[in-house]
Write a structure and sequence with these properties.
This protein is an alpha/beta fold. It has helices spanning about 15, 20-25, 65-80, 95-105, 120-125, 145-155, 200-220, 220-225, 230-245; strands at about 1-5, 30-35, 50, 60, 85-95, 110-115, 130-135, 185-190, 190. A hairpin with a 2-residue loop joins strand 8 and strand 9 (about 190). Homodimer. Belongs to the RNA methyltransferase TrmD family.
């Protein structure tokens, strides 16, 4: 998969892209990430990429021409047909795991980062396919959301996490929060690892993990359960959890 990021501040991406899973994914060829500065597509001597808003108001607005040319350039360079152009915008659809899976299905993902007071709205109307937000709050620019989306989408690609089902164990992948994880030492500070995880009985371990995933979701995000299609086993496990909570 090719991910193109359009940003006035390309140096911001060096850290996140140069470490851990994203670095390994690039080194192994599972993803190719390119950051393009729209300022490189300005033709005045000062390379101006923003201007005052029509109608007055505070702050500066990013001009449409440099962004349009930058997007056009990465589209022509990649020559990929299955692509999605996404604007980072606090007024966009809230990004979630389902959206990450959807975006992972494209050959090319182009993430357009706004800054200052935002981007000339003609980019939203005529250039991008959709606008996405990572939450109901405002950031200085779209760079941090682009990093979040790049990481979340990359995890969905086969081979990026090593194990074929690695991403399927993550919180939200199947609608539930993830079950608790433990590692060595078996005992720390008097705190024990649950005995079932040491039993070697894979069926019991899988049942425990499903139950704890349901328990965590019920306690922290009960709203997620409302929209889920639960199996008969899930209903049974939830009844067990509620009985335990009631002290039964």
């Amino acid at each position: 998969m090719r991910i193109d990021i359009i940003s006035l501040f390309p140096d911001m991406f060096a850290g996140p892209l140069g470490h851990s899973i994203l670095k390994r994914a690039q080194d192994s060829g599972h993803i190719a990430v390119h950051v393009t500065n729209p300022r490189d597509f300005t033709y005045d001597k000062h390379h101006i990429a923003d201007d005052y808003p029509f109608g007055g108001g505070s702050g500066m607005v990013m001009k449409p021409e440099p962004i349009f040319r930058a997007v056009e350039n990465v589209v022509c360079t990649a020559k990929l047909t299955r692509r999605r152009i996404v604007l980072m915008c606090p007024g966009g659809q809230v990004f979630d795991q389902a959206k990450a899976r959807e975006l992972a299905g494209y050959e090319q993902l182009i993430l357009v980062c706004g800054h200052y007071e935002g981007i000339d709205d003609r980019i939203r109307q005529y250039v991008v396919d959709e606008a996405v937000s990572i939450g109901d709050y405002v950031l200085t620019g779209g760079e941090l959301p682009a990093m979040v989306i790049t990481d979340a989408v990359a995890r969905m690609l086969p081979g990026v996490l090593g194990a074929d089902d690695g991403a399927q164990q993550d919180s939200f992948y199947n609608g539930l929060l993830e079950y608790p994880q433990y590692t060595r030492p078996r005992q720390f500070n008097g705190w024990e690892v649950p005995e079932v995880l040491l039993s070697g009985d894979h069926a019991k371990i899988e049942r425990w993990r499903r139950k704890e995933s349901l328990r965590t979701t019920l306690l922290r995000r009960p709203d997620l359960l409302a929209g889920m299609e639960l199996s008969p086993l899930d209903h049974k496990l939830l009844e067990e959890i509620k009985t335990e909570q009631a002290g039964g």
